[in-house]
C-alpha cells in the first residue's frame, strides 16, 4: 500500500510542474501590458518602465518563471491590478463559494444516480432499464445554462418558491443561503445524473457477467444480496473515478452556472478578471483550478484500492 501511495504522489509531481509552466506561459500570451494597465492611460513611459521593473516584467521568461514559482511556493500569488487585493485570499474565498455548490451537487447526484444505474443493470432490457437509460440520455443532452434558465423561470418566476438571482453566505444566514443555492445545485445534480447513471449501469453489467457472480447465485444467495454485497463494490470503482473527474471539472468549469445564478464563485471571478484584464487574478485562478483538479484526482487514485484491492497488488 505504501508503494502504491508513493507511486501516485510521484506521478502527480510532473503534472503539477507541467500545469505551472502552462499557466505561466498562457498568461504571457495575453495581449496588453500589465504595468500600463495598472498605471492607467495617462502614465509616462518612464513610469511604465519603473513598474515593469518592479513587477519583474523586464527580465527574461525563465527568470520570471523562477521568481513567480518561488513566490507561489511561499503563498504569494501577487496582487490584483483592479483593487490591489492579495490574490490568494481572494481566490480562496471565491473557491469556497464554488465548492459549496459543486461538492453538494456531486454528492446528491451520486446518491441518486449510482443506485439507479445499478438497478438499471440488474433489470437489463426491462422497461425500468429503458426508462432510466432514456432519462440519462436526455439529461446528458440538456445544456446546463439552458436547464438553469428553465429552473429559474419555473421555480423562481412562475411559482415564486425560490429567489431568482443573488447570493447570501451560509455563514451569515443559513436558511437564506440554502435557498439561494437550491437552484444551482439542482441544475448540476440533474445534468450530472445522466453521466453517472450510464457509468454505473455499464460497470455493473460488466461485473454481473463475471464467474464469481454466477458462483454466488449458485450458493443460493438472493438477487439483492448478490447485487449489493458482491457486485456493487467491484462495480463502483470505475464510477468512483468518474465522480472524481466530474468533481474536478465542475470546480474549474462552473463559470456558466455562477453567471446564470449570479453566484460570486471562482468561475465568476475568473470571467470578471478576464474582462478587466486583471492578469495576476487570472493567473491565480487558473493555477488554483488546475492544482485542485490534480489534487482531486490524486485523492480518487489513493482511495481507489478501497473498491478494488487488486490495484495495490499490481
From TrEMBL:
Its main location: membrane. Residues 95-304 form the ABC transmembrane type-1 domain. The chain crosses the membrane at residues 9-30, 95-118, 130-157, 177-197, 239-261, 281-304. SUPFAM superfamilies: MetI-like. It comes from the Bacteria. This is ABC transporter permease. The keyword GTP-binding does not apply. It is a multi-pass membrane protein. InterPro entries: BPD_transp_1_N, MetI-like, MetI-like_sf. CDD domains: TM_PBP2. It is found in: Cell membrane. Belongs to the binding-protein-dependent transport system permease family. Keywords: Cell membrane, Membrane, Transmembrane, Transmembrane helix, Transport.
